[in-house]
Design a protein that fits this description.
Layout lengths: L12 E2 L2 E2 L8 H7 L13 E2 L4 E2 L41 H19 L1 E4 L2 E4 H21 L23 H16 L3 H9 L4 H5 L6 H7 L18 H11 L4 H15 L1
Antiparallel strand pairs: 1-2, 3-4, 5-6
Length: 268
């Protein structure tokens, strides 16, 4: 998969090389089955629900990308340093953040299965739910990029703020997931509060296409905002007007061209 698909981690395939950290794994699951689960390619899957640990997206020894197709013998070893990925030390972190992440993963998996998601007082289709969540992530990341304001002050984005969720490393996607959990937990009040906190306006949302109704309804509570750049009226010269007539060739363009040339000759 060479392009970027919503909510699917991009591996950055270039011939037989992977340019991005698009393949995650659980060391314990990898040691038990020797296989990579398909759910690990989803960008909102960050923890293993079986062993309740965080996933990894690189080799813990050389920090290289995971490329099982380039290994010599076992697909569970690193293609560069040949260390066994399944024997890497897992991060056993039984904290509130991990528990909330597992709950969010279960909610989004169930949304895919049943076809809808309860957001606030209404039920939204799975397509509109994931579309809206993706737009919200991009808007909040744009506020961090252009305004220098991230809605979670106790955390900080590690990578570039303009990077898409599907291209981000797991440490940044943990913060993305934490933000989505807060928004879904108290919609739309949490969105309005965090949006005002980062100086978000309606124009920040309207720059995106195909915004679902449940997002637009909540955005009405934000300030409308003003355009960042105002276009000044461009004074068109007679030469530009002449070229426009010849290019469009609308009915009667020859007559207009003659009148324009006559007017130019009188003014000289």
């Amino acid at each position: 998969m060479t392009g970027v698909r919503p909510w699917i981690l991009s591996a950055g395939i270039f011939h037989r090389v992977r340019r991005r950290f698009g393949l995650q794994y659980c060391p314990l699951c990898l040691g038990e089955t020797g296989q990579y689960a398909r759910s690990w390619r989803l960008s909102f899957v960050l923890a293993c629900p079986v062993h309740r640990i965080w996933l990894r997206d690189d080799c813990p020894k050389c920090h290289s990308m995971v490329m099982p197709h380039r290994t010599r013998s076992r697909s569970t070893e690193c293609h560069r340093c040949r260390s066994e990925l399944s024997k890497s030390q897992p991060e056993f972190v039984m904290d509130e953040l991990l528990e909330s992440q597992l709950a969010l993963q279960e909610t989004l998996h169930r949304t895919i299965s049943v076809g809808y998601l309860a957001i606030g007082p209404e039920q939204v289709s799975a397509v509109d739910a994931f579309q809206g969540l993706g737009i919200l992530l991009r808007v909040f990341k744009d506020c961090a990029r252009w305004k220098g304001r991230w809605p979670l002050p106790e955390t900080k984005l590690v990578g570039y703020a303009g990077t898409q969720n599907e291209l981000s490393r797991i440490k940044d996607r943990i913060q993305h997931s934490q933000l989505l959990g807060i928004l879904l937990g108290d919609w739309p009040q949490a969105f309005i509060q965090l949006g005002n906190q980062v100086s978000m306006v309606q124009l920040d949302l309207l720059r995106h296409r195909r915004i679902p109704k449940w997002v637009l309804d909540a955005a009405d509570a934000l300030a409308p905002g003003v355009p960042r750049f105002r276009r000044k009226p461009i004074r068109q010269t007679w030469g530009q007007e002449l070229l426009r007539l010849q290019r469009e060739r609308a009915p009667g363009w020859r007559t207009k061209r003659a009148e324009l040339l006559m007017l130019k000759a009188r003014n000289q």
